[in-house]
Amino acid sequence: MKWGATAVAFLVVLVAVVGPLFGDAPNATVGAPFGHSGPLGTDVLGRDVLARVLHGGLAVVGLAAGATLVTVIVGAGVGMLLGLAGDRLSELTTRVIDLVLVFPPLLVMLVLAAGFPGSDLAVMVAVALTTVPFSVRVVRAATQKVAATGYLRIARARGDSVTQLIRYDVLPNVRGVVLADTGLRFVTAVYLTSTAGFLGLGRGAPAANWGRMVSENLPGITLSPWPVLAPALLLVAFGVSVNLLLGGSR
User: Fold this and answer.
1) In this structure, what is the dihedral angle of CA atoms 127, 130, 133, 134, given to the nearest 10 degrees?
2) Taking a C-beta distance cutoff of 8 angstroms, is the pair 213, 228 a contact?
3) For 181-214, what is each residue's pLDDT tens digit?
4) Helices 210-217, 171-198: inter-axial angle, 10-degree rounding
5) Is 249 exposed, middle or buried (0-12, 13-18, 19+ CB in 10 A)?
């Protein structure tokens, strides 16, 4: 099961990253709308579906990877600092950060997209903003357990700085938690970036995007299912495989 999930996840990432090097022009019209030209047929505008699948994954996976990187750096850093801080300061700061959770992720993306239309960076920032609080809470809880241990109290007593505490005492003990949390945030980011594409947020048409492909081609799914099924299956397969890997690592 683990090897199978790893292979599927790796294959989807490979298609997303390497696909643009092998796909033909994704915006060229090659036949009638929802026709049968090419292995997967054509889409709503008569463009080759296979070419658009090969070009459309990088927008989803790339933005998700960028958002996850920001989330891990900010979330882990702030989480470890709050875990080492006093109880009152830690609790108060965490409650302030939790205010972000009041706003639904899609609402945050819509607001930022309205302010910066056609910007993939706005989508990435919105995804990071909505996932950082979760990462902060997870890493903070793990750090608080480490902070209660005897060896960290000894390190504090001998005058180690916060940087030294994090580097030598905290990070080695919460690294597994951070890695597991990174996987969860990445899956969430993939779902959110694909949803952003489905809603037409970020860089607009005619740029290929797996999420947008599903939205664009839904009206013709009865005529040709592959323009919808191909990107949708890749997204579902990736999400399921990564979740299986994360479940097996707990």
Assistant:
1) -80
2) yes
3) 998 899 899 999 999 999 888 887 788 999 999 9
4) 30
5) exposed
